[in-house]
Specification:
heterodimer, A: 561 residues, alpha/beta, Rossmann fold, GMP Synthetase, Chain A, domain 3, 5-stranded antiparallel sheet, 28 strands, globular, B: 88 residues, mainly alpha, Non-ribosomal Peptide Synthetase Peptidyl Carrier Protein, Chain A, 3 helices, 53% helix
């Protein structure tokens, strides 16, 4: 058994000057980092951590833009045995006060010893650190004489044992930032081995990714997997991709990329938002798998993507699926790469009303259900009924899993650990069914909203709406509604107010839109303000999000008729 | 004066596009000086769509690297950028 740090050194010993990462940044030539350079640059950071007095087990929060410094700061932490947690940096639209609040929530629970950031952001970070905080150091990168430029003193260090925590992963928002998924070296390496074997990852592979490293799909599939498997990585930035989605297919074409992971919405976005001239000369015949993962997978999205890129040599069989989550490090299932994912045509009524996947007959309404593949060899999947009973094939229930790559726990959150497990099985909060060993994911028990692969907690958005004068606590609900054109969920907020005046409703709706947009990861478009007694409450007085979502959609249907 | 009226027409068309396609509120009015990008009114997922629209409607290319508030952040600034690039 080994650690991530040992594994990196082993790869460096084998690969030497071979390129580990091709870094892409819009408006700049690609920068290549060899394994030797990767270890050198990371060791400089490890030495910096040592000089700053950080010891094995300390948590270090990385708030950095896409680039070599982030790559080196991460691996430097691994080499020094400190626990990195990558946090998104401030975007243009987010209010600095909210970012400070988010950072303060993260610091409160995670109790990091240091924060690494870039010069422009240093002030922001320092003002989030309250007196008496656990944060002893703020390390600023990219300056003259900074970590990467000094000679490593070659300090002797221990990067810990296989069972130690290697890194933390957080999702966004106040709730997500207080729930860090702690993963051990052993769990991560078990995942990489199991997932790599299913992918038949080999020396001819090239992984191309623009996914953010603060998200499990980006961090594991688009960063650790290639680097620790000796597979070249072409790494772009999400900031650049969203402004120029052609960058991904262009990179695959130029580097002969073989594997990529994308959230479902990216299939729609790529199909809709690339100019013809950006596809001239693009050759996608090397792409052996484009894996749809991190939000519900849609056959229609695969079709759109294929129609747009088949002229570039994309093969239909290349479009694949996976079901993954940070709590299992990453992959839970993966479709068989030698053929397209299994698609079942189901009786719509039986599926939506009874939760039974029954083949459609010729006459009735149908629904297409696409498989997310079979469990990885180290992972077992069960479908649990409401009382923890096992559901038979084709019956929808909660997806539960067990593996040798589970999280160690939610960091400093024993209360969250207790809720997540039942008799050794991790309860995912997602609904689905099994059929001939294939997992079909159908929905969620949790109220979580997934927008473009990003997990959004509705309670965070609701709390923000209460900050708008005129909206009272407990009187608004946030939920997601799938948008076929975008291939992801639209976020809706319904807020109940005293007034019955439509103009007042419009005014408040606007304020809610602005306030939530400015203070969360969501650009909120859909707000409906309603009069008294609209919101459905449970007998215990809590807002029932599902019931309110149903009511909202029913009224929308009526308006359309 | 001529510039202003040329821009007024551009602003009107840009406003209509953003209201209906980005905000999904066709009746919505947007002030010519209201921040669009830094306020999150036009989010990052809508920027490339806006650039494609400008290219198709006005024959003006806005490079992906220019899609941020530092290039334009209001309807007036965007209209001025279009006018200058059209050489009018």
């Amino acid at each position: 058994m080994t650690t991530l740090g040992e594994r990196l050194r082993q790869q460096a010993a084998i690969k030497g000057d071979a390129i580990a990462v091709h870094l892409q940044t819009a408006g700049q030539p690609d920068a290549s980092i060899s394994y030797r350079e990767l270890v050198r640059g990371s060791t400089a950071f490890a030495d910096e951590y040592a000089r700053e007095g950080l010891v094995a087990g300390d948590v270090v929060v990385l708030i950095q833009q896409h680039g070599a410094d982030l790559v080196h700061a991460f691996w430097g932490a691994i080499l020094h045995g400190v626990v990195p947690s990558i946090m998104p940096y401030l975007t243009e639209k987010l209010s600095p006060e909210q970012y400070r609040n988010d950072l303060a929530s993260l610091i409160k629970v995670t109790r990091p010893a240091a924060v690494v950031t870039y010069p422009e952001f240093e002030g922001e970070v320092r003002s989030s650190i309250k007196p008496g905080s656990t944060v002893r150091r703020v390390i600023v990168t990219g300056q003259e004489g900074s970590a990467a430029d000094v000679n490593p003193p070659g300090a002797i260090r221990s990067d810990g044992g296989a069972g130690d925590i290697a890194l933390l992963q957080h999702s966004s928002g106040t709730t997500g930032l207080q729930k860090g998924v702690a993963l051990s070296h052993r769990a991560i390496l078990n995942q990489l081995e199991a997932y790599g074997s299913v992918l038949k990852l080999g020396p001819a592979d090239v992984i191309v990714s623009w996914l953010p490293l603060y998200h499990d799909m980006g961090l594991i599939a688009g960063f650790l997997l290639p680097i620790l498997s000796g597979v070249p990585l072409v790494l772009g930035s999400p900031f650049d991709w969203v402004r120029a989605p052609w960058r991904l297919v262009d990179a695959v074409s130029r580097y002969r990329g073989t594997l990529s992971w994308l959230p479902n919405f990216a299939y729609n976005f790529s199909a809709q938002k690339i100019r013809d001239r950006n596809l001239e000369g693009v050759d996608l015949s090397s792409w052996r798998a484009v894996i749809n993962c991190s939000e519900p997978v849609r056959l229609e999205s695969h079709r759109m993507f294929f129609e747009r890129f088949k002229e570039c040599g994309l093969r239909w069989e290349a479009l694949q699926t996976s079901y993954a989550m940070a709590e299992n490090v990453f992959g839970v299932t993966q479709s068989d790469l030698s053929r397209p994912p299994v698609v079942q045509t189901l009786d719509r009524e039986a599926f939506l009303v009874e939760g039974i996947a029954r083949p459609a007959d010729a006459a009735g309404a149908k629904i297409a259900s696409m498989s997310s593949g079979k469990p990885l060899p180290n992972t077992e999947v069960q479908i649990h009924g409401p009382r923890g009973n096992l559901m038979p094939d084709g019956h929808v229930g909660e997806i539960a899993l067990r593996s040798d790559c589970m999280l160690t726990g939610y960091y400093n959150r024993p209360d969250a650990d207790r809720q997540a497990f039942r008799n050794g099985w991790y309860l995912t909060g997602d609904y689905g069914y099994l059929s001939d060993g294939e997992l079909f994911v159908s929905g969620r028990k949790k109220d979580m909203i997934i927008v473009g692969g990003k997990n959004i907690y509705p309670q965070d958005l609701e709390a923000l709406s209460y900050e708008v004068p005129g909206v009272h606590g407990g009187r608004s609900v946030a939920f997601g509604v799938f948008n076929d054109e975008l291939g992801t969920e639209d976020v809706y907020v319904v807020a109940e107010v005293e007034s019955e005046d439509p103009r007042e409703h419009e005014r408040l709706a606007d304020l809610i839109r602005q306030h939530v947009t400015k203070n969360s990861a969501v650009a909120l478009r859909h707000v409906r303000v309603v009069g008294p007694r609209w919101i459905v409450k449970t007998s215990s007085g809590k807002t029932a999000r599902g019931a309110n979502r149903d009511k909202f959609l029913r009224e929308l249907e009526l308006l359309r008729e | 004066m001529e510039n202003r009226s040329a821009n007024a027409e551009l602003i009107q068309r840009l406003e209509a596009y953003i209201a209906s396609e980005v905000l999904k509120q066709p009746a919505r009015r947007i002030d010519g000086q209201a921040p669009l990008i830094s306020s999150g009114l036009v989010d990052s997922f809508s920027l490339v769509g806006l650039a494609l629209y400008v290219e198709e409607e006005f024959g003006v290319h806005i490079d992906d690297t220019e899609l941020s508030a530092s290039t334009f952040d209001t309807l007036e600034q965007l209209a001025e950028l279009i006018r200058l690039r059209r050489g009018q």
